[in-house]
Design a protein that fits this description.
The protein has helices at about 20-30, 45-55, 60-65, 85-90, 105-120, and strands spanning about 10-15, 35-40, 55-60, 75, 95-100, 125. Helices cover about 40% and strands about 20% of the residues. Helix 4 (about 85-90) runs parallel beside helix 5 (about 105-120). Helix 1 (about 20-30) links the parallel strand 1 and strand 2. Strands 3-2-1-4-5-6 form a six-stranded parallel beta sheet, with helices on both faces. The protein has a single domain, classed as NAD(P)-binding Rossmann-like Domain (Rossmann fold, 3-Layer(aba) Sandwich), CATH 3.40.50. The protein is of the alpha/beta class and about 140 residues long.
Length: about 140
Protein backbone atom coordinates (compact mmCIF):
# COMPACT_ATOMS: atom_id res chain seq x y z
CA UNK A 1 0.00 0.00 0.00
CA UNK A 2 1.30 3.46 -0.92
CA UNK A 3 1.93 5.71 2.04
CA UNK A 4 0.13 9.01 1.49
CA UNK A 5 2.06 12.25 1.75
CA UNK A 6 0.19 14.29 4.33
CA UNK A 7 2.64 17.12 4.98
CA UNK A 8 2.16 19.81 2.37
CA UNK A 9 3.76 21.16 0.39
CA UNK A 10 5.21 18.06 -1.24
CA UNK A 11 8.94 18.66 -1.58
CA UNK A 12 10.27 17.55 -4.95
CA UNK A 13 13.55 17.25 -6.78
CA UNK A 14 14.17 16.91 -10.51
CA UNK A 15 16.89 14.90 -12.22
CA UNK A 16 17.38 16.58 -15.61
CA UNK A 17 17.19 20.05 -17.09
CA UNK A 18 15.65 19.48 -20.52
CA UNK A 19 12.22 20.24 -21.91
CA UNK A 20 10.35 17.68 -19.80
CA UNK A 21 12.13 18.89 -16.64
CA UNK A 22 11.17 22.47 -17.48
CA UNK A 23 7.50 21.47 -17.75
CA UNK A 24 7.77 19.65 -14.42
CA UNK A 25 9.33 22.68 -12.74
CA UNK A 26 6.64 25.01 -14.08
CA UNK A 27 3.90 22.68 -12.89
CA UNK A 28 5.43 22.36 -9.43
CA UNK A 29 5.77 26.14 -9.14
CA UNK A 30 2.16 26.71 -10.20
CA UNK A 31 0.74 24.50 -7.44
CA UNK A 32 0.85 25.68 -3.83
CA UNK A 33 0.81 22.05 -2.68
CA UNK A 34 4.32 21.49 -4.04
CA UNK A 35 7.77 22.99 -3.67
CA UNK A 36 10.75 22.40 -5.96
CA UNK A 37 13.67 21.91 -3.58
CA UNK A 38 16.56 20.81 -5.81
CA UNK A 39 17.69 19.95 -9.33
CA UNK A 40 20.67 18.18 -10.86
CA UNK A 41 21.81 17.85 -14.45
CA UNK A 42 24.71 16.81 -16.67
CA UNK A 43 25.93 20.31 -17.57
CA UNK A 44 26.81 22.60 -14.64
CA UNK A 45 26.10 25.88 -16.46
CA UNK A 46 22.74 24.69 -17.79
CA UNK A 47 21.81 23.26 -14.39
CA UNK A 48 22.65 26.55 -12.67
CA UNK A 49 20.58 28.50 -15.21
CA UNK A 50 17.67 26.08 -14.72
CA UNK A 51 17.88 26.48 -10.94
CA UNK A 52 17.95 30.27 -11.16
CA UNK A 53 15.00 30.32 -13.56
CA UNK A 54 12.94 28.06 -11.32
CA UNK A 55 14.06 29.35 -7.93
CA UNK A 56 15.64 26.16 -6.69
CA UNK A 57 18.98 24.76 -5.53
CA UNK A 58 21.56 22.82 -7.53
CA UNK A 59 22.95 19.55 -6.21
CA UNK A 60 26.00 18.00 -7.84
CA UNK A 61 24.62 14.59 -8.77
CA UNK A 62 21.50 12.48 -8.94
CA UNK A 63 22.98 10.42 -6.10
CA UNK A 64 22.98 13.52 -3.87
CA UNK A 65 19.50 14.47 -5.02
CA UNK A 66 17.88 11.13 -4.15
CA UNK A 67 19.51 11.23 -0.70
CA UNK A 68 18.40 14.83 -0.05
CA UNK A 69 16.78 14.73 3.40
CA UNK A 70 14.02 17.23 2.57
CA UNK A 71 12.64 15.49 -0.52
CA UNK A 72 9.42 13.49 -0.63
CA UNK A 73 9.36 12.95 -4.40
CA UNK A 74 11.90 12.60 -7.22
CA UNK A 75 11.06 13.35 -10.86
CA UNK A 76 13.34 11.58 -13.35
CA UNK A 77 13.59 13.54 -16.59
CA UNK A 78 16.97 12.48 -17.91
CA UNK A 79 18.37 10.02 -20.45
CA UNK A 80 16.55 6.69 -20.71
CA UNK A 81 19.49 4.46 -19.78
CA UNK A 82 19.65 6.04 -16.30
CA UNK A 83 15.96 5.85 -15.35
CA UNK A 84 16.11 2.45 -13.66
CA UNK A 85 19.15 3.03 -11.49
CA UNK A 86 17.94 6.47 -10.37
CA UNK A 87 14.46 5.13 -9.59
CA UNK A 88 15.96 2.26 -7.55
CA UNK A 89 18.18 4.61 -5.56
CA UNK A 90 15.29 7.01 -4.91
CA UNK A 91 12.97 4.23 -3.75
CA UNK A 92 15.69 2.82 -1.49
CA UNK A 93 16.13 6.33 -0.06
CA UNK A 94 12.42 6.39 0.83
CA UNK A 95 11.27 8.73 -1.94
CA UNK A 96 8.21 8.57 -4.19
CA UNK A 97 9.19 8.48 -7.89
CA UNK A 98 7.73 9.84 -11.11
CA UNK A 99 9.81 8.94 -14.14
CA UNK A 100 9.55 9.57 -17.82
CA UNK A 101 9.05 6.49 -20.00
CA UNK A 102 10.70 3.99 -19.94
CA UNK A 103 11.03 2.89 -16.34
CA UNK A 104 14.04 0.79 -17.33
CA UNK A 105 15.56 -0.52 -20.53
CA UNK A 106 15.51 -4.01 -18.98
CA UNK A 107 12.03 -5.52 -18.41
CA UNK A 108 13.23 -7.65 -15.47
CA UNK A 109 14.71 -4.55 -13.83
CA UNK A 110 11.41 -2.72 -14.37
CA UNK A 111 9.53 -5.58 -12.68
CA UNK A 112 11.92 -5.51 -9.73
CA UNK A 113 11.41 -1.75 -9.37
CA UNK A 114 7.65 -2.23 -9.19
CA UNK A 115 8.17 -4.90 -6.52
CA UNK A 116 10.51 -2.58 -4.60
CA UNK A 117 8.05 0.34 -4.73
CA UNK A 118 5.28 -1.90 -3.40
CA UNK A 119 7.52 -3.22 -0.62
CA UNK A 120 8.52 0.32 0.38
CA UNK A 121 4.97 1.67 0.12
CA UNK A 122 6.09 4.32 -2.36
CA UNK A 123 4.51 5.70 -5.51
CA UNK A 124 6.29 4.66 -8.70
CA UNK A 125 4.66 6.31 -11.69
CA UNK A 126 5.86 6.06 -15.28
CA UNK A 127 4.65 8.92 -17.40
CA UNK A 128 4.44 9.47 -21.12
CA UNK A 129 4.72 13.25 -21.13
CA UNK A 130 4.04 13.40 -24.86
CA UNK A 131 0.53 12.09 -24.15
CA UNK A 132 -0.04 15.13 -21.95
CA UNK A 133 0.79 17.47 -24.82
CA UNK A 134 4.31 18.19 -23.62
CA UNK A 135 6.31 17.06 -26.62
Amino acid sequence: MIKTITNLPIKAGIVGTGFAAKLRAQTLQADSRSHLVAVCGHTPAKTQEFAETHGTTVVDSWQQLVEHPELDLVFISTINRDHGKIARAALNAGKHVVTEYPLSLDPKDAESLITLANAKGKLLHVEHIELLGGL
